[in-house]
Amino acid sequence: MKKFNMLLLALLAAISLSLPKLSVAAKSLDEIKEAGEIVLGTNAEYPPFEWVEMKDGEQVYLGIDFDLAHLIAEKIGVELVVSDQAFNALIPSLQAGKIDMAIASMSYTEERAEQVEFSEIYFETKNLFAVPTGKEADYQSIDDFSNVKIGVLKASVQEQMIKELFPDGDIVSMNKNGDLIESLKSGRVDVVLMDNVVIYQYETLNSDSIVVLDEFSLEDGSFGNAVAMEKGNSELKAIVDQVILEAIESGELDEIVAKNIDLSSQSQD
Length: 269
Fold this sequence. Notes:
five-stranded mixed beta sheet, 12 strands, 2 domains, alpha/beta, D-Maltodextrin-Binding Protein, domain 2
């Protein structure tokens, strides 16, 4: 009898492994409206795009991306729910139906566009290196970065770009930009690479210890920052695109960017 049970369990296990795994679809626009909420996936470690402050004992999410997310939620007529997670978990979370959209200063790339649906571009940046103060003279050409330890955000376009540029380089990938800056200050990495808006924010906050190398601007092959959604979710994409284009045309997006650059500098002084 025991042998029969063991054979039966083995057979069931084999059958389960052979069956295709069912994916969980993200909610449609009608389902989002019915639920009364839209779930935003983000990585709140990227001022001025997204960061967290404590107010009256509660976490408050701030930044360009959160202001944009609120505009989208208001347009649909639902509440905004935030799921703060590692940057490299955002696309899998979309594909698993755990979040409805991801706004995390995520760059539109052809590779990512095969996995998710992207909105219109809402912000364009370039990529710059930062080094410890006093080390600027060590970098006279791009080749000088080939033999140093370079810190980048895990799963970012900067990570992909630097691996292509220096395939044999010493590259350190981390989940948080704040950890990268602390690693730069402590000497665990020699340089870090981030987009210009974010790296200038960190330079302002750490002006006595790091400096941005403006002369080494790198193109990453991306098309700028966009909102990511489940592949094929055309109804939600149409709403998101409308919000972005209207905010650009009215100048509201420029106001959001300027406000959050100033706010993130003040709040972290």
